[in-house]
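#struct-pred
JK: can someone run the complex with alpha-L-arabinofuranose? inputs below
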Amino acid sequence: MSPVVSRRKLLAALGQSGAALAAGSWLSGTRFAAQSRGPARAFLNQALFRSDLDRRLLGSFLEHLGRAIYTGVYEPGSRLADAKGFRTDVIASVKGLQVPMMRYPGGNFVSGYNWLDGVGPKNKRPTVLERAWNSLETNQFGTNDFMDWCKLVSTEPLLGFNLGTGTPEMAVAYVEYCNLDKGTKWSELRRSHGYEQPHNVRYWCMGNEMDGPWQMGHMTAREYGRKARDTARQIRVIDRGLQLIACGSSNTILPTYLVWDREVLEECYDQVDGISLHNYYGNTKELTGENTSRFLAMNLDMERQIREIAAVCDYVQGVTKSSKRLWLSFDEWNVWYRARGGPFSDGKRAVAPKLLEEVYNLEDALLVGGFVNTLLRQSERVRVGCLAQIINVIAPLVTNETSVLRQSILYPYAWALKYAHGRVLDLRVESETYPIKADGLRADFARNEQVPFLDVAATINRQNGQVCVLMLNRDLEAERELVLEWRDPTPTRVLACETLTGPDLKAFNTFEQPNRVVPRPLEPPSPGARMAFKLPPRSYSVAHIATS
Ligand code: AHR
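RT: done, structure tokens with the ligand placed:
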């Protein structure tokens, strides 16, 4: 991406002072400038953009965990199930969202998974003890079932293979089973299972969170890096062009953070295309001091993690003198801190136990909006992203026997899926800031002294000129004005304008009261070169705008 108009020229044209720019700290990487008072401003110019958006950035995740598969997407016997046992109401919900990519089958689950157990005639598939979540896995839903389901919801599969207890041989066999046309042991096995055509899966996760001591088959970075390299080299014999994602650090607090990534990549840089990042966030004593203003700034911690991992990739690229630049796969992210650990993670040897069923409130949804903004801003480097997860387990969608509930976090995600297309604009944002530093918090969060009240991201669809602007107001008390200053193009019509807000940050939806946290219309300003939005306190808003 090379901006056609230089930053200096643009600023001169807009009459903006250099002093405001100088005030920007590390946040200047986000094109943010601190401002002491007055309405916030965001400058839009389609000549300045960050990336052509790869929609895979807005993917999600479906793991064999708790009620995600069984009673989530698959429930034969339910009056809502189709002939294959898939829940039709869930299909409609996921398809309606237009989720571009779905990661499967795990997560921690994949590190003990034998994919062979989940293919072939259902009456021959074994029930096994699933050791990541101490559950019973019936294997009635497996890879081919997932592929069928992906077609029904119009999503692209992102498959993971087992590099924990699994061998490179079986990982490569899995790729062969899925992708090779015919004439070999594993491709013929697939055909004998009724799938004549290969699934042609392009993106693959090489294991899951192998840096984590909780992971089955956990190993050192060097051991994992060599195993990943060996596996990747064999996979390249099947298809050189597959996109292979190495396991990066699974959070920012493990002592191996960044060192793991460097060592793994020193072993396998030449054979992989991307590296994974994971993180989960919470409004806890340890992370935020249970302070919502600080909590709503956690997407900036995500932003820092992206930059730090990218820096490690570039370091290894330099050391290895490679011409290849790795992209990042933030393939697990979400708020998750209540239904976590202890009984929430122990399936007690049941089929489809209730695990990790986090209930999401308004403040969680606002932060999820912030994560969406961060991912869009960093889309030049982050190609794949997965909201973890899609259904029942830390999820925006929840099933009971008769319906699907939309949790609060669904809405910001759904807006991005619906409206964010085309190019991510390189916005310059000026906003007043507030302090978030405090003693006694975990060292990897809240590392900024000051953060802006307003967080803005935007895309432009160059086919139809439509712009999507996503706006987070972190101010818990006051409405804030945001002036969009348009250099090019000029808005002609506001097609949609909505906000997610409310008086109670802890409000959440239930099956009995599904509309406590839902979007409502936001009065848009008249379209034009200068548009002043009035953003309610503690809100996340979207404007979908037609331009000339
Ligand atoms: O998404 C829940 C779990 O969180 C995943 O299985 C694992 O990869 C992560 O630790």
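RT: quick notes.
The first helix runs from residue 7 to 14.
The first strand starts at residue 32 and ends at 34.
JK: thanks, will look after standup
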